[in-house]
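Module 6 notes. Inverse folding takes a fixed backbone as the condition and produces residue identities as the prediction. Think of it as a translation problem where the source language is geometry and the target language is the twenty amino acids. Below is one complete input and output pair. Work through it position by position during the lab.
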């Protein structure tokens, strides 16, 4: 991290000499208190973001090569998530939303740094680290080979527990494989990160649907714990008359069929309408565009409320996808062949906030209009197939779990989209926390709490940091990307860019050896460590309580008490 250069000033007053008498003493004394950075606090996967970013930023200072730093960072990331390359591509980066650097010149590009770390691991064939070589007696079944199930399996397998994953499809990955296009997530990247989990000893059984080929009851009898992570791969209907037409698809069905190589007929006029504002809607629209369609997205709110990743929305628009904001479907017009020929839509306006906190869209009377259509994709929502898992359902709700993922049924945990539609990073975090809870149930131990307080800019000194503009990765040109269905659009960071962007991290709440406390102390109460990277030593017997060290500490690591 670059900091403003200062020169240590000599003092003659505190130690005698030309300055005259002694300065007034204060009863307060400095103490070193590590805080939790807001990026990690906001990460549903629980990634130790400050640690892996600073491992790269401080490499040269600590005498490490870039490769050594990237490997260290990879080991830190994969302690909590086995999918750094995947998440570096598809995560909406909630960490960046909370990054304290955004109050200066823009959040650190954490997502792209994570991707660079993950890609380094793939390039160098790094193996996931086992935490125990002792085979444990307890056996665990995981239902679903998507990100949540594989995360849980990974965390248990690295602790020595035998784990078997039951996946209904012919390949593992869930929505990562059958819902996200190759231009965002190349299949080879997903395959390599899944293979590492298998190499750790996880048994993966594909083509086995629990609830059809084997029952939940049988798994409960045979295994000491079961983790249910079915995913949500059934589309929700629009509730509009005429959507039973053959050329009306659900978003998840459209993406699934596309990923299975099915030739999709979008009609002679090639005008596709996608309804919805989430990532599924954007992915479906961009695929249709690559298949040659003229595409219009209908979204009933504005761009500000759109839940899809903003850069994906921007790229869809750059590729020629038209977006009709504040519009919703109310009906279809069919031809004699039974196919939809046009969608009838209505204009909307935003009213009072709903339960989600977003303003409720309200139809404007008399504002109906038509859009010609040769295909319609409904991507408004999706839900799991709970067949065979009815005992886990409470009332009309989805599977309810406690904070550790435990269901109301003994020895059965659940996570991912079966509990609530969320993000890939949420699913990974669910799996990790459930794995840790399952192990605690085996060992009879309790969860240790994190005592650290989250630090924000009011406890830091941002003026002490040099201004460093955020870097952005190179994007493939529109003409080139549209020529190939699976050509990756975002080219990511080079190693040099990764290092440079990592140096923007402010190490919120933790020392990064800027030397300022030592340089400003007039009482020799702070001593530099003999080894770079170690903490500075406080010699409180020399301290007068002037608080200059705390007042100058950029990252808020020093407190007076």
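Target side of the pair, the amino acids:
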């Amino acid at each position: 991290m670059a900091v403003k250069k200062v020169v240590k000033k000599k003092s003659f007053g505190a130690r005698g000499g030309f300055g005259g008498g002694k300065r007034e003493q204060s009863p307060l004394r400095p103490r070193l208190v590590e805080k939790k950075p807001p990026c990690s606090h906001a990460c549903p996967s629980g990634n130790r973001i400050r640690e892996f970013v600073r491992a790269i930023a401080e490499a040269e200072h600590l005498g490490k090569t870039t490769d050594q730093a990237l490997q260290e960072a990879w080991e830190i990331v994969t302690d909590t998530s086995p999918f750094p390359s995947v998440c570096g591509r598809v995560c909406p980066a909630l960490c960046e939303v909370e990054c304290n650097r955004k109050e200066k010149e823009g959040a650190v590009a954490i997502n792209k740094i994570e991707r660079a770390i993950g890609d380094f691991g793939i390039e160098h064939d790094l193996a996931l680290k086992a935490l125990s070589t002792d085979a444990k007696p307890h056996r665990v079944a995981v239902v679903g080979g998507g990100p949540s199930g594989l995360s849980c399996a990974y965390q248990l397998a690295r602790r020595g527990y035998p784990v078997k994953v039951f996946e209904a499809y012919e390949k593992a990955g869930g929505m990562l494989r059958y819902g996200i296009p190759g231009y965002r997530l190349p299949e080879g990247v997903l395959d390599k990160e899944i293979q590492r989990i298998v190499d750790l000893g996880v048994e993966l059984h594909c083509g086995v649907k629990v609830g059809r080929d084997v029952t939940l009851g049988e798994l409960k009898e045979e295994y000491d714990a079961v983790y249910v992570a079915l995913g949500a791969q059934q589309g929700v209907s629009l509730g509009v008359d005429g959507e039973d037409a053959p050329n009306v698809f659900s978003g998840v069905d459209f993406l699934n069929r596309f990923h299975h190589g099915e030739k999709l007929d979008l009609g002679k006029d090639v005008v596709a309408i996608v309804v919805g504002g989430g990532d599924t809607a954007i992915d479906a629209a961009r695929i249709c565009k690559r298949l040659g369609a003229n595409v219009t997205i209908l979204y009933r709110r504005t761009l500000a409320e759109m839940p899809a990743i903003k850069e994906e929305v921007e790229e869809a628009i750059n590729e020629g996808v038209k977006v009709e904001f504040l519009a919703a479907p109310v009906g279809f017009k069919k031809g004699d062949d039974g196919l939809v020929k046009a969608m009838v839509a209505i204009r909307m306006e935003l009213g009072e906030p709903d339960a989600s906190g977003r303003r409720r869209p309200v139809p404007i009377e008399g504002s109906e209009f038509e859009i010609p259509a040769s295909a319609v994709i409904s991507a408004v929502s999706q839900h799991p197939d709970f067949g065979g898992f009815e005992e886990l359902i409470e009332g009309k709700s989805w599977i309810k779990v406690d904070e550790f993922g435990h269901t109301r049924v003994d020895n059965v945990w659940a996570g991912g989209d079966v509990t609530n539609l969320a993000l890939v990073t949420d699913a990974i975090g669910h799996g990790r926390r459930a794995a840790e809870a399952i192990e605690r149930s085996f060992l009879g131990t309790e969860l240790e709490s994190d005592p650290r307080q989250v630090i924000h800019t009011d406890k830091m000194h941002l003026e002490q940091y040099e201004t460093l503009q955020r870097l952005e990765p190179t994007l493939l040109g529109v003409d080139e990307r549209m020529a190939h269905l699976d050509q990756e659009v975002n080219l990511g960071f080079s190693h040099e860019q990764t290092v440079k962007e990592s140096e923007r991290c402010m190490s919120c709440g933790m020392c990064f050896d800027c030397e300022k406390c030592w340089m400003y102390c007039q009482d020799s109460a702070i001593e530099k460590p003999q080894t770079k990277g170690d903490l500075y030593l406080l010699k409180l017997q020399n301290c007068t309580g002037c608080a200059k060290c705390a007042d100058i500490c950029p990252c808020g690591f020093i407190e007076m008490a």
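Reference fact for the lab report: The mean pLDDT is 92.
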